Amino acid sequence: MIFNQKIRCTMKSKLVILLVLFSTSIFAQDFFQGTIITQRYDTISNVKIKKISEGRSLLHISYIDNKGNTQNPAINTIKSYSRGEDNFIRIFHNGEMILVKQVVKGTNLNLYARRINGGDTYFIEKVFDELIKVPSMKGKFRKVIGNFLSDYPTVSAKIKEKKLTDIKEIVHICNKGETL
Questions:
Q1: pLDDT, tens digit, for every residue of 26-55?
Q2: Which of 46-53's residues contact partners 24+ apart within 8 Å by CB, and which partners?
Q3: Other C-beta atoms within 10 Å of 164: how many?
């Protein structure tokens, strides 16, 4: 009888410990080293930026400053920020500045994504030149991206022939040079 009570107490204490560990891991927040550049070009270095979903990362930012204080600046005051391996920057599109995630930073082309309502919208930019929104409709994609990348005739032709359809692959090929 005493042996059974000890086993139950031991099992209960193990269960309590497991529940505590599990709930702390669920509620633990991930912070990554980062740098923030404000709209006034002030640089805030070596801060811990809270990891949140990609969609929310375009709308909110929370970080712990060097003094250990949590800061929540308005996202419209941020020009760009890096959080671990992720980079978020402001681009000018259709008359407004929008925050996007940098997917590819290349020598010839950059690719950005903006996750809204569970879907990704991509933007492609010729470095130091034109930026366009990548069409999601296949027919329009072939025409618009094929024409946009006319400086890469082989790639452009493959896009129009439906042989290249993945925007990330297309950007990588153009950044390497045309080796198809």
A1: 334 699 999 999 999 999 999 999 999 888
A2: 47/71, 49/81, 49/83, 51/83, 51/84, 53/115
A3: 21
DSSP string, 107-151: SSEEEEEEEETTEEEEEEEETTS-EEEPPSSHHHHHHHHHHHTTT
CATH of 31-84, one of 2.30.30, 1.25.40, 3.30.2310, 1.10.10: 2.30.30
Instruction: Say if residue 99 is exposed, middle or buried (CB neighbours under 10 Å; 0-12, 13-18, 19+).
Output: buried
Query: Could you tell me which residues come within 8 angstroms of residue 105 by beta carbon, excluding any fewer than 6 positions away?
Result: 87
The beta strands (E) that lie in 31-77 are given as 31-38, 43-50, 63-64, 70-71
**Whole-angstrom Cα distance, residue 77 to residue 80?**
9
Assess contact for 118 and 71: CB atoms under 8 A: no
Cα 12 to chain center, whole Å?
43
pTM for the full predicted model = 0.78
Position 14 scores a pLDDT of: 62
**Taking the domains of the chain in order of start, what are their residue ranges?**
31-84, 100-180
Contact 103, 134 (CB under 8 A): no
Q: Which two tokens stand for residue 133?
A: 């929104």
C-alpha closest to that of 90 among 112, 72, 107, 106: 112
